[in-house]
Amino acid sequence: MTLRLSRITAATAALLLSMGATPLWAANGADGTTDEATAQKAAREAAAEMRQLRQQERQRNNIYKVWFPDQATARKAAISYHHALLESKYDAGYLILELESEEYAALQAQGFRLETAHDFIKRRNEFLDRFDKAADENRKSGGNGDVGVESIPGYSCYETVEETFAAAQAFATSKPNLAQWIDAGNSWQKNTGSGGYDMRVLKLTNTAIGGTKPKLFVTSAIHAREYTTAPLSLEFARWLINGYGVNADATWMLDHHEIHLMLHTNPDGRKKAEGGLSWRKNTNTAYCGANSNSRGADLNRNFTYGWNSTNGQGSSGNVCNETYRGPSAHSEPETQAVESYIGSIFADNRGPNQGDPAPANTMGVHLDIHSYSQLVLWPWGTTNTPAPNGTALQTMGRRLAWFNGYTPEQSIGLYPTDGTSDGPSYGDRGVAAFTIELGSSFFESCTTYNNTTKPKNLPALIYAARVARAPYQLPAGPDVTTLSLNDGTGVPAGTPVTVTASITDTRFNNSNGTESTQAINAAEAYIDTPPWSPGATAIALSAADGSFNSTTEGITGTLNTTNLANGKHLVFVRGKDASGAFGPVSAVFVNIGPGTPPVTETEPNNTIAAANPIAAPVTLTGTMLNNSDSDFFRVDLPAGGTLTSTLTPNSSSDYDLYVYDSTGTLLGKSERSSGLVDTVSVTNSSGSTAQRFVKVLYYGGQTGAGGTYSLQLSW
Ligand SMILES: [Zn+2]
Question: Do residues 430 and 349 touch, judged by C-beta distance below 8 A?
């Protein structure tokens, strides 16, 4: 890891001068170029800045255990004091907050009891010590003393900015038809030539399928220290990409929807947090002093819509405050990048007035992922008045909260928040916007993240992608909770396939008000063409118990596969409730191909020219008519494909196996003795489909009625 000279900020330079360090430029060439030694020196000095900032952090002891009067008030406090929140312990009855004196007084007046959080401060200091120690070890082993670049000490499950970007780039490189890694602007440091990062978006969709697709946009880690947020978004990308062609839901979501992930919405600040600091804002040195670890603007108070709109209650004008809103709306390049990206993917669906609703069929969802309050929140955050789409937002919020078990509520806390990230999406354009507050602690262990936070929240993200086509309508409809086929693997076309599912309207989190539910009154399946596409054909499914009359119904039906080509097909299933609301689709694969009854060799096929064509992977049966018989089979092997041929003779015969190309050149053979299985694999390394000819040859043993073999051909 080397750092460029430009990474060093004026702040660092001033700091280093004050520490008696040799200024960088003294070692720099007259033409301004940097050499390896200079770059290493810059890296050492950046590491020294981080050590100095960690020392500043140790001085921050205004951290309190805040005992709340009741759970509802605690959640509102967690919203209003999100900037101060370091842990939420709802079950134990307290929050850990880092508070200014006026905030301390305000909470006391609200009925909260406060005491210094000695335990937390001790853990925090141990945490900081670990980074200093790792930095020492790095330097002793010949490094620059930087830490948190390749991994976060003790938190290896949280990818760093570099690791996250490398993973996203790898998706775009290996799956260019599914993933694009888009440059959406610059971070503040990049803009000012002091290191920094591009503001990147990982766009996931199958580009082979065109048309206007619903979009899910996810921003994560806008607050730098919220470790779990970007790794969760990256995990979501893995689920989609690795699931394509394997998991039917991941496949149709990439075919028919777009998922846009701004994995790091505040990469400069994130680098500070990855060095052990409890960093929230961006790193803009113009605010609060270039050397301060309280510097920067709160990007989640800097958005244009509603910026500074609540008389100073919902954001701060104090440059050192954790909710400093910036000197003007969207003053920060990170905020500008988010706003312009949202403008590039979402149309304006809402009128100019605060009370204008977006149409019920508005497409698209924006999720902003934070931690650590265990909440699912929706607009408005500026006022107690519900948003004009508030009822539908609440319905979807309660569905999302069903998955993670968090509390769903409007994002108004004890006080308002303004200039937040849902402004450009919901406020300006009417796009359904939610903030999900993951987990409970800055120190969330990898065990907790892997066993709880990730498995609870990944399904919520998948649900958001599922309903992105109509987020104000589909969450009111039921979910398909189990879906299977009696035989989805390799059934011959024409074989009826039985579909079984459970459909339920009950998956709401009712911890904060109760969502009404209805009986399921219809269910239907579609093969290949989903219900929203032209030419879609519904196949009616039945209630397994004979009548649609319950909020959760077992469903069954039969699929006619007569006209399906060999290969994988998507089967979409959805249900409708008694209010007339359809829910989102779930899907499963049916794989059409020759299975049983077996394909039988047809004579004569003694030459390449007379070979039996084989259209799909199969295990066929053949017969050696006499001791001069040979049987040829033709496979059209796709570019890059590997054909594996497995020949099993009858137990008392010796037949052998050969594979040729179309010119008769032998590509592979197996000549094992009587009764033994022969196997040959050949790969088509050309750039296009190529014919391969598999020959079964009589060598010894039985012929005629007793001269049977089976030949498995797979590719
Ligand atoms: Zn946050």
Answer: yes
For residue 432, give both structure tokens: 């359904």
The CATH fold of domain 161-365+375-474: Aminopeptidase (3.40.630)
- Report, as an integer, the average pLDDT of 499-508: 97
Give the CATH number of domain 477-592; options: 2.70.98.10, 3.30.1330.10, 2.30.40.10, 2.60.40.10: 2.60.40.10
User: Residue 259 Cα, ligand 1 centroid: separation in angstroms?
Assistant: 21
Q: Ligand 1 centroid to 365 CA: how many Å?
A: 19
| Banded pLDDT at 36 (limits 50, 70, 90) | confident
Residue 223 Cα to ligand 1 middle (Å): 5
Q: Ligand 1 centroid vs 629 CA: distance in angstroms?
A: 75
Compute φ and ψ for 662, nearest 5 degrees: -70, -15
Largest pairwise CA distance in the chain: 100
In tens, the pLDDT along 675-692 reads: 889 999 999 988 889 999
477, 573 in Cβ contact below 8 A?
Answer: no
| CA–centroid distance, residue 82 to ligand 1 (Å) | 6
Place of tokens 């335990």: 119
How many whole angstroms from 361 Cα to the centroid of ligand 1? 30
Looking at the predicted structure, is the pLDDT value of residue 17 above 60?
no
Please tell me the distance between residue 437's alpha carbon and the centre of ligand 1 in angstroms: 8
Torsion, Cα 333 465 450 153, to 10 degrees, reads -10
